[in-house]
Structure formats: structure tokens, C-alpha cells
Amino acid sequence: MGSNNGGGEEQLKKMAELSKTLKEGERILAPTRRPDGSLRKPIRIRAGYVPQEEVAIYQSRGALWKKEMASQVVPPGYDPAVDIKPKTKSAKRNERKKEKRLQAALEKSKNLEAEANNEIKNEDTEEDLDHGSESVRSLASQMTDLAVSQNPVLTSPPSNSVEASESGTPVQDLDKKNQGS
Known about the structure:
The protein has 181 residues and is mainly α. It has 6 helices and 2 strands; from the N terminus they run αββααααα. A two-stranded antiparallel sheet has the order 1-2.
């Protein structure tokens, strides 16, 4: 056990010496213990060193280009800033007309919805109106039963009416009158 302690002290002495001779940016990893209990040597890491696990994997130009193309939405070489043209007067006018048509269509659909809602309400009121129409019919039938006054007013029906042709009195055609003259 004494030898293990002495080996640990030696390691600490070496660490102290190494830390004195460190240059700027260098560092030392402390010694680690193995499963059997012995210590590993301290590791000195030079300035600017990147461990192998952290180094980026090399990618060829073609692979980089493919990644870049996959991330783009537009075709290669397309510059949208060059493609934008100022709108002409007629194009602006057409755009306004189109917007007005869309607004009119939206208003029309809103009106149709409102009418549909009103129709639903009207169906409910029609049931109430059916009761009222029955009372109107009974009033109309009572009016026809009413007696007419003793002084009847004679009115002659017009010559082209259906009643006049059925009554049996001959009515002259207007065309025949005109031809005779």
C-alpha cells in the first residue's frame, strides 16, 4: 500500500513540473485511475488541438452543392429580384376588379346565408299563418253568404270576357266590324 501512495506522490510532482512549463493555451488533463487501481499519466493538450471526435467530417464540393440545392425552393440560378416587374396601369386595374368581384361573391354568400336563416324563421311563422288563413277563409265564406241590396246595379260585361260568350248573346268580333266598313 505504501508503494501506491509513493506512486501517487510522484504523479503529483510530475503534474506540478508540467504545469510550470505550460505554454499559453495548453492544458493538462489530470491522471485517471484504472480499474486495477493504478494511475494513468497526465495528458498535456497543446494549444489549438481539436480531438478527433470533434473534427468535422470532410465533405466534397459536390456533396455540399447537393445539400445547398436541396435547401433551395427556386431553381438554380434563378434570381427573384430580377424577375419582379413593375405593374402596368391595366394590370393594377384588373387586380382591383378581381378584388371587387371576390368581395361581391363574399357578400352574396353572406346574403344567401342570411336568406336561408330567414327561410327557417319563415317556416316557423307559416305554421302560425295557417291558423290565420283559416279565419280569413271563414270570413270570405260569410261575406259570400251576405244578402245583396234590393237595387241591383247592372253592369255590362266587356265584350271579350268569357262570361259574355257563354251567356248566349251574340257578340260581334271587332275584326269583322272593321272589315265591313
